[in-house]
Amino acid sequence: MFALISSILFAYEKVPVIIPFKSGGELHTFFYCFNELSEGKKLAEEIFRVKKFDELAKGEKEKVLPVPLGTNVGYYDHAIFCYGEEFWLFDNRNGFLWGRGMLLSEPRN
């Protein structure tokens, strides 16, 4: 119940996520989750210094991974993930995160 109320009251939420690797191991990271693309653009520019957010948002996305279970990611329409030199924008559709990414000129963590 709190997660649902939080998603309504706050523009975004920083959600801890564990992404398992197919070859074994896992990546512990954060997704910035939000419902409005305008909020995602603001996050991308202010936190990660990414200026080409609109290009990612307009481009075709592919099915990347299931919505991480046990997290609040599923309560939001979109998420941003940044690790090292990769920046990803995801749409939450049908229990999966559909995404499109780009390489950055330098790592952002």
SSE topology:
Layout: H1 2-9, E1 12-20, E2 26-34, H2 37-48, H3 53-58, E3 62-66, E4 78-83, E5 86-93, E6 96-103
Antiparallel strand pairs: 1-2, 2-4, 3-6, 4-5, 5-6
Describe it:
This protein is α+β, with helices and mostly antiparallel strands and 109 residues long. It has three helices and six strands. The chain has a six-stranded antiparallel beta sheet with strand order 1-2-4-5-6-3. The radius of gyration is 13 Å and the shape is globular. The model has no long low-confidence stretch (mean pLDDT 90).
Strand order of the largest sheet: 1-2-4-5-6-3
Order of helices and strands: HEEHHEEEE
Q: Averaging pLDDT over every residue, what do you get?
A: 90
> How far is the first residue's CA from the last residue's CA?
31 Å
Detail the poorly predicted runs: none
Shape: globular
- Give the biggest beta sheet: 6 strands, antiparallel
Number of strands: 6
The share of residues in extended strands comes to 35-45%
